[in-house]
Design goal:
about 30% strand, seven-stranded mixed β-sheet, about 170 residues, single chain, transferase, Aminopeptidase, alpha+beta
């Protein structure tokens, strides 16, 4: 499947929030307490999304028929979770695939695509975080070759920090 990353614009904010809400509903049905704040997002989360859109970090992920399969946020630095880092890396946030496309390897394709693009930009690592209360998600990233290199405690939860060297 050919994936296209389409830049998200400020007028797409409601669509982005809807994607987060749908993901939160699905996660809740799995009895996992992760992303539940997206059901009724607090203002700081809305501002966080708006900032990412303004910084041109959010992308819809679409197939060859221009159907939106999900979205992802890609950053050049992640001061909140990772602090200042010396090595050049790309940071993945808000990676989600719509429920009807789950289990088709789309998340893996998205990560691989970001990794290829990052390597072409001479990045040394691909980095992301995963809520430590979601062991299934943590295993998913570990199965993609990410290694846990730390943890970050924030008011909402503790997040495992993962990185993957780009060889």
């Amino acid at each position: 499947m050919q994936l296209t990353f389409t830049l998200i614009h400020k007028e797409d904010l409601e669509d982005v929030i809807s994607l987060f809400q749908a993901a939160a509903d699905k996660i809740s049905r799995m009895n996992i307490d992760h992303w539940q704040y997206w059901k009724n997002p607090p203002s700081e989360k809305i501002e966080w999304v708006k900032e990412g859109i303004q910084n041109k970090e959010y992308f819809f992920v679409q197939n060859e028929n221009n159907e939106t399969l999900g979205m992802v946020r890609i950053l050049d630095q992640d001061l909140l979770y990772w602090g200042k880092q010396d090595e050049k890396a790309r940071y993945i946030h808000s990676l989600l695939v719509k429920e009807e496309y789950n289990g088709k390897g789309i998340g893996i394709q998205i990560i691989k695509r970001i990794g290829r693009d990052a390597k072409a930009m001479d990045c040394k690592y691909l980095r992301l975080d995963a809520d430590s209360t979601n062991p299934k998600l943590c295993r998913y990233y570990e199965n993609q070759g990410f290694k846990q290199v730390g943890a970050k405690k924030l008011p909402i939860s503790t997040y495992n920090l993962y990185e993957k060297a780009l060889a």
